[in-house]
Amino acid sequence: MNRNNNPSPVLALMIAGALALAGCGAAPPAEEPPLAGAAIGGDFALTNSKGETVRWNDFAGKYRIVYFGYAFCPDVCPTDMQRVAQGLRVMQEQDPAKAAQIQPIFITIDPERDTQEVVGEFAAAFSPDIIGLTGTPEQIAATAKTFKIFYAKGEPLEGGGYLVDHSNIVYLFGPEGEPLATLPVDQGADAVAAELDRWVK
Predict the structure, then answer these.
(1) Fewer CB within 10 Å: C terminus or N terminus of the chain?
(2) Do the Cβ atoms of 106 and 81 come closer than 8 Å?
């Protein structure tokens, strides 16, 4: 039996239309953010340096950089925060309008030592734009769980004090609180600025 390999007139028109669109510079589909659809982030009730209660929805309409760390961290946290601040400064120079849409947030995972004054001073040491947040141990634990952050208090150090082991992920969230991407702080300020420019519209 012979088969008719010619497309139907309707199918032929559909193919021709698709080819015409492809040949006329049709815009490619928008790139999907790496964290699109991930169950990361959500509401919290924490305290800023002025003693005011701050909630996640207070930042509605803003892109949000979120980092969990602690002020007494000897190395990783200050380095990460410095690169976030430097990346923001690069973006402020390159595209002030985009930079104005971003709110950086530092959340402590060491509420025993990081009082509201301490988190305020720590955040401000890197940029006046960064908001430092603390809370009760229960509030911090709930918030870290919501943002998929691990942390654990270490053994006491000789001479006093202790370290806190924790995830050092820098998240970027969209204006509706949706997770978008992580920022490559390990690659420096220019890489952070480039990633922000990629997702902030």
Answers:
(1) N
(2) yes
